[in-house]
Amino acid sequence: MKKYIIRKIFSFIICILAVTLFSFSLLHLIPGDPVRYILGEFATEEQYQKLKHQLGLDKPIHVQFIDWLANIILRGDFGKSLVKNVPVSELISERIVYTLQLTGTAWLIAFALGIPLGIAAAIYKQTAVDYAVMGLAAFLMSMPYFWLGLVLMLVFGVMLEILPISGIGDWRNVILPSLTLGLPQVAVIARLMRANMLDVLDKDYVMTAKAKGLPNTLVVFKHALRNALIPIVTYMFLQIPWLFGGAVVTETVFAWPGMGRLLIISILQRDYPTVQALVFLIGTLTVIANFAADLVYAFIDPRVRVTGEGA
Amino acid sequence: MRNGTLLKIEDLYVNFKTDEGIAKVIDGVSLDIKYGEVLALMGETGCGKSTVAKSILRLLPKNAEVRGKILFKGTNILDLPESELRKIRGKEIGMIFQDPLTALNPVFIVGNQISEMFKIHKLRIKRTILDEVIELLKNVRIPDPQRRYYSYPFELSGGMRQRAMIAMMLAGRPSLLIADEPTSALDVTIQAQILKLIMDLRNDYNMSILLITHDPGVVAEMADRIAIMYAGQIAEIGPVRDIFLNPQHPYTKGLLRALPLGHKEERELENIPGRVPNLIEPPPGCRFHPRCPHAIEKCKKEKPKPVVVSNEHFVFCHLLRGG
Amino acid sequence: MTEEKRRTVGVSMWKLTWRRFRKNKLAMTGLVMLLIIVAISALAPLIAPYSPIEQHLEDRLQPPSPKYLFGTDELGRDILSRVLYGSRIALRVGVLVALISAAIGVTLGLISGYYGGIIDEVIMRIVDIVWSFPSLILALAIVSILGPGLINAMVAIALTMWASYARIVRGETLSVREELYIEAARAIGESDIRILFSYILPNVMSSILVLITYNIPSAIIIAASLSFLGLGAQPPTPDWGLMLSTARTYLTIAPWYSIFPGVAIMITVLSFNFIGDGLRDAIQPERVS
Known about the structure:
Chain B has helices at 49-56, 82-88, 100-103, 110-120, 129-139, 145-148, 158-170, 188-205, 216-222, 240-245, 250-257, 265-268, 297-301, and strands spanning 5-18, 21-34, 38-42, 64-72, 75-76, 93-96, 176-180, 208-213, 225-230, 233-239, 306-310, 313-316. Chain B is an alpha/beta fold and 323 residues long. In chain B, 46% of the residues are buried. Mean pLDDT of chain B is 89; it is low at 261-268. By secondary structure, chain C is mainly α. The interface between A and C is large, with 55 and 45 residues.
């Protein structure tokens, strides 16, 4: 266990470093002169020098990196937005709640529906239940988020007129965006759960459980499910960063004022400090989610917990 | 009771529906096990011996179609409703498998898996379930049972796992123990210990044993009677001594001729040319006829009926006339 | 194994795969769907009733009618013609991105597995990061460097998708590296590059093919998403994602506008996914439940 954790901590540190370096380099990887690129052709020399100084590009690169990182770590300061003239951290903190609300609801929907559907499909393998669940999953997984969002809007907002189409407001505004983000994940989890369950139901220990005289419910929900859930619990964490990825599109579709929408606007407006900050935050979140998944896996699988060997 | 019949299989047919067609895996098998007896079911991999074992407890997958009768203490197991079947599984008939690592659930401690038996079958206990389980672990000679109670299967050695598995199946004090290749996944040195343990427990618990194996050495040591299976049919059945000293079926002869060579299954049959037939389109009549050096026309058409060799010794072969 | 023997094994494996694939109804449906889409994109100029960029300003936002089967958009362009032409962009993007990312991933995987050591360590750490990063966010970050546009979007997507190839190829290379015939090839003086490409690559070809089949639809979806966000294809390109981006504005008054391009994306993606599932099951039949 100790060895496993140490190995994971080591790779955690390397990944955080890589994410930091990557976000920092975004500005420097722009082909040609980044200042010129941001300002466009018609900027004056004065504007040029001012922005260059503001971005710190007049200093040696290692000093820039240390300044950038130190500001983030010590003061939570990601610099100033080039468009709105306020600190980036302020822009983000205004919006982070909305993104968490959206991704959190989607996350709940994904597991609350995905796990039972997957179990049902596995138990009733090759029956109408299975075909219905898997067919639905195939369709959901073939729809891009933005189109699923438009279809839901069209059905519930335009045709049935029971839910608001876009923007923020009360709880009803959350429903369509979080369904848009959550339903494709329901499909992924249902498929994963079904595959795990079928795999486990084929195992010798399930036959042992039957040979012992256990009722079917115990065989399925104790002996099989406990094993089949291990990868799902890990996936609960691995999935979090992908929800943030999906949120970018979903927020744009529903005019939802979250971090994803901010990212797109910032890229279109060449507001690099904001882009860097968002990439850094989502990257860090990704690494943390992966690390958490590794730890949780170690905790719930006795084989890893005791020996530190992955099964 | 010693001479009564505990289990009687009559005309068992098992078909598996597969993508390639219907595999006729068991083709009219009949056999019986008496109280206290050890019957070995022997044959090559794929001959259906495991399928027979699993059909007794109805553990075959959903694509299996089972016909015939399996009478346990007079009741046909194949006709029982689920609820009645569950009272037999584990309680009346125990079963242990080839690989105890995969047969034990990796995420529960051994103690939990054994004590489950006391709960579901509402077994009589003297003090606590924990005490009973530790008693069982002692009976199968697991050292330090108090500690092993809390071990996960992967923390035990192969031999210990099989002992734990046996302990679990003894909890209900079954009158029949089905042992499906109980030692083939274990180290050679451990095999003998486990076999001895099973034989000792048979006496202590007064059980009958159905031993599934491909190893003639194991049969010679343990069994009272032996049934030789080939491609889903019984070839020959009788007391171990009779079969070993006086084999009648050409297949049995080939099987035993290789005996001194040792335990490697591949070697056992190198004297018989040909291979195990495809069970989707099995050879008609006696399924052994394509490989049989003495096959006659009749073998290709008719399924052989049992021929009495001596008191309990029967052979299924057209070449032999009764008498 | 001799070269010749390996080749015959290879041929019969593909034949066997095809035989199993052919029995899979869903996979064959996918294949037929894909062939139709390919035919449409090849014959678009012949079957499309109008030019995809021709504006009929007097017929703006018309609902479906015999004149415009799928209706018209905000500039009076025929949506059917734009959807038909859109298949060209989708297929081109999907296939090119998948092939580029396969090329990057396979090369890095071969290098990583064959040379091992510090090179392997570095490459695999990068693979870990790229692999766990949400592709859309990574693609967005790269687009923010390269600037918007369809070509840049394709490069960005290719740079997010290569990691799975690298993993598979590295694993296979590690296991094959020690095989006797590789030793033999080295002994008779074959160059490293030749060994990598002519001995190791054939062993992973089937896994790579399955991955490519799965990556094409993912690439199509991400590219459409980038276009929808305004960072991919630019007007007046008849790109499905771009069309939906405009359609969103007219959702209440022209609902048909939002339907047809989306259905086109879904059918295209579905056909590749069906083929991918069928191919995977045909290549590794033991995995089929």
